[in-house]
Amino acid sequence: MTKTSGDVLASLLRLSEGASVLYVEDEPLIRVEITETLETLFSRVVTAENAIQALELFQKEEFLLVITDINMPEMTGIEFIRTIQKTHPQQAILVTSAYSDSGNLIPLINLGVGSFILKPLDWKLFLSLIHKELTLALGAKEEVRYQKRLEKEVRLRTEELRETQHQVVRLQEAKDNMLALISHELRTPLNGILGFIELIRPALADDETAAFLDHVENSARRLERSTRKALDFSSLSTGKRTIHRDIYRIEAMLQAAHDQVDEHLEKNESLRIEWKGPEDATIFTDAQMVVEVLKNLLENVAKYAGTEPMVTLTFQKEGTWDMLLVRDSGPGFSATTLETVFQPFSTGNIMHHSEGMGLGLALVDVIMLTLGGRVEVRNPPEGGAEVKLRFPAKTS
Quick count: other Cβ atoms within 10 Å of Cβ 338? Predict the structure, then answer.
């Protein structure tokens, strides 16, 4: 539906409310006639007899619209437009002229002036062009205001982000310093305790005291291992651990993990491992990190899988993954544990239905993520617990 003259005029009055216009015309009679019409529309109409006078006025005041003739003495309308566009490239401009030759039109097109009308004026077209330019000018102003609000919002959010990042860095530094302090303050007395245990042991006279001393030693070594895990978890979580990838035999890494776990088991404990993969099965990974993963799993099996703990390891390939399945003979994960199994320091997160607090599978999880893999847990129908380690396969 097209707008009627009355609709355009009503809309024009709304657009021009409170606005000012600069009108440049060197012919006095035409200037007076058009000025009278403009004064019925605009709150303020400023007139100039030539482009030089208009330029002085333009530099002192802001105008929503500039209406200018082209052929004027001393400075043409085209030169005037070119000058004001240097500082106000978005200025709304309407050009009037008694001539329609291409010598005037082509420069105006190049300057981006889209409203041009011949004299004597067609008043309906004149009002329509004013309406068009005011609509564009007000839209541009709103866009500028929106852009400024957006830029201000971005500056504020950027500053908040910088402050947050600064706080995160400070908190991380404080966390690292605290862990280092804890490590030092725990390991120093622990080494002393373990050293004194070795000195006292030869002097023990009865089995009961020896058993008590064994219990003290096991507790001290458990605390030592927990401290090491906490430090490992911190370095991995912050990305400070360097990865050294190469091709390693899985069975060799499993044996290394088993040997380290054996050192921590009590004399009457045993852990049987059955390797069902080929002897030459390899993965492209960081051997030290994988040994740490396997060691954590084996320790938990030894602790929670009963009097004769057993673990079975199977190697599989699935698409772009090399998978290691670790299955044990224990009671499996409790329902609560399965919900929080990868959360550090949550009850029952180590393996199975466990008691106590610890890092457990949270450390395994962060190691696997660091290696670009992932870990999955479940209770298979035939019993026990299963941990599936997915490693990204090496691409040629």
Answer: 15
Domain range for 184 is 159-236
- How many domains does the chain contain in total? 3
Q: Do 227 and 290 have their domain in common? A: no
- Token output for 20: 């000012």
Question: 356 and 256, same structural domain?
Answer: yes
How far is it, in rounded angstroms, from Cα 380 to Cα 263? 30
Q: Are residues 324 and 202 in the same domain?
A: no
Q: Is 270 helix (H, G, I), strand (E, B) or coil?
A: coil
Give the H or E element holding residue 92: strand 92-97
CA angle centred on 364, ends 359 and 365, rounded to 5°: 100
- For the stretch 13-72, pLDDT in tens is 888 888 999 999 999 999 999 999 999 999 999 999 999 999 999 999 999 999 999 889
CB 137 within 8 A of CB 92: yes
pLDDT, one tens digit per residue, over 239-292 is 666 788 899 999 999 999 888 887 666 544 677 888 988 888 999 999 998 998
Residue 252 and residue 202: Cα distance in Å, rounded? 36
The CATH number linked to 185 is: 1.10.287
Q: Is residue 144 part of a domain?
A: no
Q: Compute the distance between CA of residue 23 and CA of residue 232 in angstroms, rounded to an integer.
A: 76
Whole-number Å distance between alpha carbons of 100 and 65: 22
Helices and strands (DSSP H and E) totals, the chain: 11, 12
What's at 182, amino acid-wise?
I
Q: Name every residue whose Cβ is closer than 8 Å to that of residue 359 and which is 6 or more positions away in sequence.
A: 226, 229, 230, 233, 344, 345, 350
Beta-carbon contacts of residue 356 (< 8 Å; ≥ 6 apart): 347, 350
What is residue 379's three-state secondary structure? coil
Domain with residue 362: its CATH number is 3.30.565.10
Q: What is the CATH number of the domain that holds 37?
A: 3.40.50.2300
